[in-house]
Amino acid sequence: MGRIAYVNGRYTPHAEAAVHIEDRGYQLADAVYEVWAVFDGKLADAEGHFARLSRSLGELRVPEPMSRAALTVVLREVLRRNRIRNGMVYLQVSRGVAPRDHAFPTAPVSPAVVVTAKAVDPAAAEAKAAKGVAVITTPENRWGRCDIKTVGLLPNVLAKQAAKERGAAEAWFVDEMGLVTEGASSNAWILDRDGVLRTRDTNANILRGVTRLTLMDVIREAGLTVSEKPFSPAEAIEAKEAFITGAGSLVLPVVAVDGKPVGEGVPGPVAKRLRALYIERAKNTAV
Ligand code: PDD
Full-prediction pTM beyond 0.90? Predict the structure, then answer.
Protein backbone atom coordinates (compact mmCIF):
# COMPACT_ATOMS: atom_id res chain seq x y z
CA MET A 1 0.00 0.00 0.00
CA GLY A 2 1.19 3.51 -0.77
CA ARG A 3 2.47 5.80 1.98
CA ILE A 4 0.12 8.68 1.29
CA ALA A 5 -3.69 8.60 1.20
CA TYR A 6 -6.19 11.28 0.28
CA VAL A 7 -8.91 11.80 2.91
CA ASN A 8 -11.52 14.52 2.52
CA GLY A 9 -9.35 17.15 0.91
CA ARG A 10 -6.00 16.25 2.51
CA TYR A 11 -3.03 14.17 1.50
CA THR A 12 -2.16 12.32 4.69
CA PRO A 13 0.51 9.82 5.74
CA HIS A 14 -1.07 6.38 5.40
CA ALA A 15 -0.63 5.46 9.07
CA GLU A 16 -2.55 8.56 10.15
CA ALA A 17 -5.27 8.45 7.50
CA ALA A 18 -8.65 7.92 9.17
CA VAL A 19 -12.35 8.55 8.75
CA HIS A 20 -14.83 9.52 11.45
CA ILE A 21 -16.42 6.68 13.47
CA GLU A 22 -19.83 7.84 12.23
CA ASP A 23 -18.86 7.80 8.58
CA ARG A 24 -21.82 6.03 6.99
CA GLY A 25 -19.49 3.94 4.88
CA TYR A 26 -17.89 2.56 8.04
CA GLN A 27 -21.15 2.01 9.94
CA LEU A 28 -23.64 1.09 7.23
CA ALA A 29 -21.66 0.32 4.06
CA ASP A 30 -23.47 3.38 2.70
CA ALA A 31 -20.69 4.02 0.21
CA VAL A 32 -19.51 3.17 -3.29
CA TYR A 33 -16.06 2.62 -4.73
CA GLU A 34 -14.04 2.27 -7.91
CA VAL A 35 -10.69 0.70 -8.75
CA TRP A 36 -8.58 1.75 -11.72
CA ALA A 37 -5.66 -0.27 -13.03
CA VAL A 38 -2.62 1.99 -13.47
CA PHE A 39 -0.08 1.70 -16.26
CA ASP A 40 2.92 4.04 -16.42
CA GLY A 41 1.26 6.31 -13.84
CA LYS A 42 -1.93 6.62 -15.91
CA LEU A 43 -5.51 5.46 -15.34
CA ALA A 44 -6.70 2.55 -17.47
CA ASP A 45 -10.27 2.58 -18.79
CA ALA A 46 -10.67 5.92 -17.01
CA GLU A 47 -13.93 6.91 -18.65
CA GLY A 48 -15.68 3.60 -17.98
CA HIS A 49 -14.86 3.71 -14.28
CA PHE A 50 -15.93 7.36 -13.95
CA ALA A 51 -19.20 6.60 -15.71
CA ARG A 52 -19.89 3.66 -13.41
CA LEU A 53 -18.99 5.76 -10.35
CA SER A 54 -21.55 8.37 -11.39
CA ARG A 55 -24.12 5.67 -11.86
CA SER A 56 -23.42 4.05 -8.47
CA LEU A 57 -23.61 7.45 -6.73
CA GLY A 58 -26.85 8.21 -8.55
CA GLU A 59 -28.41 4.92 -7.44
CA LEU A 60 -27.55 5.80 -3.81
CA ARG A 61 -28.62 9.43 -4.32
CA VAL A 62 -25.21 10.59 -3.09
CA PRO A 63 -24.12 13.82 -4.82
CA GLU A 64 -20.94 13.79 -6.89
CA PRO A 65 -18.23 14.88 -4.44
CA MET A 66 -16.31 16.82 -7.09
CA SER A 67 -16.01 17.16 -10.84
CA ARG A 68 -14.47 14.38 -12.88
CA ALA A 69 -11.56 16.66 -13.74
CA ALA A 70 -10.91 17.40 -10.06
CA LEU A 71 -11.18 13.72 -9.18
CA THR A 72 -8.71 12.85 -11.91
CA VAL A 73 -6.25 15.34 -10.40
CA VAL A 74 -6.64 13.72 -6.96
CA LEU A 75 -6.22 10.16 -8.29
CA ARG A 76 -3.10 11.17 -10.21
CA GLU A 77 -1.72 13.12 -7.26
CA VAL A 78 -2.06 10.09 -4.97
CA LEU A 79 -0.18 8.02 -7.57
CA ARG A 80 2.49 10.69 -7.92
CA ARG A 81 3.01 11.15 -4.17
CA ASN A 82 3.37 7.40 -3.78
CA ARG A 83 5.63 7.13 -6.86
CA ILE A 84 3.42 4.42 -8.32
CA ARG A 85 3.97 3.64 -11.99
CA ASN A 86 2.05 0.36 -12.16
CA GLY A 87 -0.66 -0.85 -9.84
CA MET A 88 -4.09 0.24 -8.74
CA VAL A 89 -5.81 3.29 -7.38
CA TYR A 90 -8.84 2.94 -5.09
CA LEU A 91 -11.53 5.56 -4.57
CA GLN A 92 -14.29 5.35 -1.98
CA VAL A 93 -17.16 7.81 -1.63
CA SER A 94 -19.51 7.49 1.33
CA ARG A 95 -22.69 9.47 1.99
CA GLY A 96 -20.76 11.28 4.71
CA VAL A 97 -20.68 11.58 8.50
CA ALA A 98 -23.91 11.76 10.49
CA PRO A 99 -25.40 10.37 13.73
CA ARG A 100 -26.26 6.72 13.12
CA ASP A 101 -29.68 6.30 11.54
CA HIS A 102 -30.60 3.93 8.73
CA ALA A 103 -32.48 6.63 6.79
CA PHE A 104 -30.51 9.36 5.03
CA PRO A 105 -29.35 12.28 7.21
CA THR A 106 -31.92 15.07 7.19
CA ALA A 107 -29.33 17.85 7.44
CA PRO A 108 -27.19 18.03 4.30
CA VAL A 109 -23.83 16.25 4.66
CA SER A 110 -20.85 16.26 2.32
CA PRO A 111 -19.82 12.94 0.82
CA ALA A 112 -16.60 11.58 2.33
CA VAL A 113 -13.84 10.79 -0.17
CA VAL A 114 -10.88 8.47 0.36
CA VAL A 115 -8.23 7.57 -2.22
CA THR A 116 -5.45 5.03 -1.73
CA ALA A 117 -3.05 3.42 -4.17
CA LYS A 118 -1.04 0.25 -4.40
CA ALA A 119 1.93 -0.71 -6.53
CA VAL A 120 1.89 -3.97 -8.50
CA ASP A 121 5.05 -5.49 -9.92
CA PRO A 122 4.22 -6.12 -13.60
CA ALA A 123 6.70 -9.03 -13.74
CA ALA A 124 5.03 -10.74 -10.76
CA ALA A 125 1.59 -10.17 -12.32
CA GLU A 126 2.77 -11.71 -15.60
CA ALA A 127 4.27 -14.70 -13.74
CA LYS A 128 0.93 -15.26 -12.01
CA ALA A 129 -0.92 -15.05 -15.32
CA ALA A 130 1.55 -17.46 -16.94
CA LYS A 131 0.69 -20.05 -14.28
CA GLY A 132 -3.03 -19.35 -14.21
CA VAL A 133 -5.25 -19.52 -11.14
CA ALA A 134 -7.79 -21.90 -9.64
CA VAL A 135 -11.34 -20.90 -8.78
CA ILE A 136 -13.98 -22.47 -6.56
CA THR A 137 -17.74 -22.13 -6.84
CA THR A 138 -20.10 -21.02 -4.11
CA PRO A 139 -23.87 -20.42 -3.97
CA GLU A 140 -24.92 -16.88 -4.92
CA ASN A 141 -26.02 -15.19 -1.71
CA ARG A 142 -25.65 -11.48 -2.46
CA TRP A 143 -28.32 -8.77 -2.56
CA GLY A 144 -30.31 -7.90 -5.68
CA ARG A 145 -28.30 -4.81 -6.71
CA CYS A 146 -24.85 -6.16 -7.54
CA ASP A 147 -24.79 -3.66 -10.43
CA ILE A 148 -24.02 -0.96 -7.83
CA LYS A 149 -20.37 -0.98 -6.83
CA THR A 150 -20.93 -0.62 -3.09
CA VAL A 151 -18.47 -1.36 -0.30
CA GLY A 152 -21.06 -3.78 1.15
CA LEU A 153 -18.91 -6.76 0.19
CA LEU A 154 -19.36 -9.26 3.02
CA PRO A 155 -20.53 -12.19 0.85
CA ASN A 156 -17.61 -11.44 -1.49
CA VAL A 157 -15.20 -11.37 1.46
CA LEU A 158 -16.43 -14.74 2.76
CA ALA A 159 -16.36 -16.28 -0.72
CA LYS A 160 -12.82 -15.03 -1.34
CA GLN A 161 -11.64 -16.39 2.01
CA ALA A 162 -13.22 -19.78 1.22
CA ALA A 163 -11.34 -19.73 -2.10
CA LYS A 164 -8.07 -18.87 -0.37
CA GLU A 165 -8.51 -21.68 2.15
CA ARG A 166 -8.92 -24.10 -0.76
CA GLY A 167 -5.84 -22.86 -2.60
CA ALA A 168 -7.84 -20.86 -5.15
CA ALA A 169 -7.59 -17.22 -6.17
CA GLU A 170 -11.24 -16.51 -6.87
CA ALA A 171 -14.75 -17.74 -6.04
CA TRP A 172 -17.46 -17.86 -8.70
CA PHE A 173 -21.00 -17.30 -7.46
CA VAL A 174 -23.55 -19.76 -8.90
CA ASP A 175 -27.23 -18.79 -9.02
CA GLU A 176 -30.25 -21.04 -8.36
CA MET A 177 -30.36 -22.05 -12.03
CA GLY A 178 -26.86 -23.48 -11.64
CA LEU A 179 -25.24 -20.73 -13.72
CA VAL A 180 -22.16 -18.69 -12.85
CA THR A 181 -22.98 -15.05 -12.18
CA GLU A 182 -19.49 -13.58 -11.59
CA GLY A 183 -16.50 -13.77 -9.30
CA ALA A 184 -16.11 -12.20 -5.85
CA SER A 185 -14.03 -9.41 -7.46
CA SER A 186 -14.03 -10.18 -11.18
CA ASN A 187 -16.20 -11.21 -14.12
CA ALA A 188 -16.13 -14.84 -15.29
CA TRP A 189 -15.49 -16.06 -18.84
CA ILE A 190 -15.04 -19.27 -20.82
CA LEU A 191 -14.01 -20.17 -24.34
CA ASP A 192 -16.59 -22.87 -25.04
CA ARG A 193 -16.27 -26.04 -27.15
CA ASP A 194 -17.57 -24.10 -30.19
CA GLY A 195 -14.85 -21.47 -29.86
CA VAL A 196 -17.25 -18.81 -28.55
CA LEU A 197 -16.13 -16.49 -25.73
CA ARG A 198 -18.92 -16.41 -23.18
CA THR A 199 -19.65 -14.23 -20.17
CA ARG A 200 -22.82 -13.55 -18.21
CA ASP A 201 -25.21 -10.89 -19.57
CA THR A 202 -25.60 -7.71 -17.54
CA ASN A 203 -29.37 -8.18 -17.18
CA ALA A 204 -28.34 -10.68 -14.52
CA ASN A 205 -27.51 -9.40 -11.06
CA ILE A 206 -23.81 -8.71 -11.65
CA LEU A 207 -21.41 -5.81 -11.75
CA ARG A 208 -21.03 -4.32 -15.20
CA GLY A 209 -17.29 -4.81 -15.35
CA VAL A 210 -15.41 -2.07 -17.14
CA THR A 211 -12.65 -4.50 -18.12
CA ARG A 212 -15.33 -6.90 -19.38
CA LEU A 213 -16.77 -4.21 -21.64
CA THR A 214 -13.41 -3.14 -23.06
CA LEU A 215 -12.46 -6.76 -23.61
CA MET A 216 -15.60 -7.29 -25.69
CA ASP A 217 -14.29 -4.66 -28.12
CA VAL A 218 -10.85 -6.25 -28.08
CA ILE A 219 -12.41 -9.65 -28.85
CA ARG A 220 -14.43 -8.34 -31.78
CA GLU A 221 -11.42 -6.47 -33.16
CA ALA A 222 -9.42 -9.70 -32.95
CA GLY A 223 -12.09 -11.36 -35.12
CA LEU A 224 -13.28 -13.66 -32.33
CA THR A 225 -16.88 -14.32 -31.32
CA VAL A 226 -18.35 -13.17 -28.02
CA SER A 227 -21.71 -14.13 -26.57
CA GLU A 228 -23.36 -12.92 -23.37
CA LYS A 229 -24.65 -16.38 -22.65
CA PRO A 230 -24.29 -17.73 -19.12
CA PHE A 231 -22.50 -20.99 -18.38
CA SER A 232 -22.50 -23.55 -15.59
CA PRO A 233 -19.44 -24.72 -13.63
CA ALA A 234 -19.69 -28.04 -15.54
CA GLU A 235 -19.51 -26.15 -18.85
CA ALA A 236 -16.48 -24.26 -17.57
CA ILE A 237 -14.72 -27.55 -16.75
CA GLU A 238 -15.56 -28.88 -20.22
CA ALA A 239 -14.59 -25.60 -21.90
CA LYS A 240 -11.39 -25.08 -23.89
CA GLU A 241 -10.35 -22.22 -21.64
CA ALA A 242 -11.56 -20.02 -18.83
CA PHE A 243 -10.46 -16.68 -17.41
CA ILE A 244 -11.50 -13.76 -15.23
CA THR A 245 -11.43 -10.01 -15.87
CA GLY A 246 -11.22 -6.99 -13.58
CA ALA A 247 -9.16 -3.93 -12.78
CA GLY A 248 -7.13 -6.06 -10.38
CA SER A 249 -6.76 -9.22 -12.44
CA LEU A 250 -6.89 -7.61 -15.94
CA VAL A 251 -7.36 -10.83 -17.95
CA LEU A 252 -6.26 -13.80 -15.84
CA PRO A 253 -6.36 -17.42 -17.06
CA VAL A 254 -8.31 -19.91 -14.92
CA VAL A 255 -6.84 -23.42 -14.99
CA ALA A 256 -9.10 -25.26 -12.54
CA VAL A 257 -12.67 -25.02 -11.26
CA ASP A 258 -13.47 -26.77 -7.96
CA GLY A 259 -10.26 -28.75 -8.27
CA LYS A 260 -11.01 -30.01 -11.81
CA PRO A 261 -8.76 -28.87 -14.66
CA VAL A 262 -10.11 -26.62 -17.39
CA GLY A 263 -8.89 -27.77 -20.81
CA GLU A 264 -5.30 -28.93 -20.45
CA GLY A 265 -5.10 -27.44 -16.95
CA VAL A 266 -2.77 -24.71 -18.16
CA PRO A 267 -3.48 -21.16 -19.42
CA GLY A 268 -4.96 -21.35 -22.91
CA PRO A 269 -3.64 -19.48 -25.96
CA VAL A 270 -6.76 -17.35 -26.38
CA ALA A 271 -6.76 -16.10 -22.78
CA LYS A 272 -3.04 -15.35 -23.03
CA ARG A 273 -3.54 -13.45 -26.28
CA LEU A 274 -6.51 -11.51 -24.90
CA ARG A 275 -4.49 -10.55 -21.84
CA ALA A 276 -1.71 -9.16 -24.03
CA LEU A 277 -4.18 -7.34 -26.30
CA TYR A 278 -6.10 -5.91 -23.36
CA ILE A 279 -2.95 -4.61 -21.65
CA GLU A 280 -1.71 -3.07 -24.89
CA ARG A 281 -5.04 -1.33 -25.41
CA ALA A 282 -5.28 -0.19 -21.78
CA LYS A 283 -1.78 1.27 -21.92
CA ASN A 284 -2.49 3.07 -25.20
CA THR A 285 -5.72 4.61 -23.94
CA ALA A 286 -4.71 5.32 -20.31
CA VAL A 287 -4.96 8.98 -19.22
N1 PDD B 1 -13.49 -5.55 -8.42
N2 PDD B 1 -17.34 -8.17 -10.35
C3 PDD B 1 -17.09 -7.78 -9.09
C4 PDD B 1 -17.96 -8.30 -8.01
C5 PDD B 1 -16.02 -6.90 -8.83
O6 PDD B 1 -15.79 -6.50 -7.57
C7 PDD B 1 -15.20 -6.45 -9.90
C8 PDD B 1 -14.06 -5.51 -9.67
C9 PDD B 1 -15.51 -6.89 -11.20
C10 PDD B 1 -14.73 -6.42 -12.39
O11 PDD B 1 -15.03 -5.07 -12.67
P12 PDD B 1 -13.98 -4.11 -13.40
O13 PDD B 1 -13.56 -4.80 -14.65
O14 PDD B 1 -14.75 -2.89 -13.66
O15 PDD B 1 -12.84 -3.91 -12.44
C16 PDD B 1 -16.59 -7.73 -11.39
C17 PDD B 1 -12.46 -4.59 -8.03
C18 PDD B 1 -11.25 -4.67 -8.86
C19 PDD B 1 -12.20 -4.74 -6.54
O20 PDD B 1 -13.18 -4.98 -5.84
O21 PDD B 1 -11.07 -4.60 -6.10
Answer: yes
